[in-house]
Amino acid sequence: MFVILVWASGLSYLVALPSVVLRLMTQGKIHSLLDEVIII
How far is CA 29 from CA 6, 7, 38, 39, in A? Predict the structure, then answer.
């Protein structure tokens, strides 16, 4: 039972990690675009 809980939490973590990274990347791109617009 404990192993199943650990496996499920690990699986959900692996699934959530790419979306968090993608969100951070898109936020970084948006910030860099805003910086370029401000510089221009």
Answer: 34, 34, 14, 15
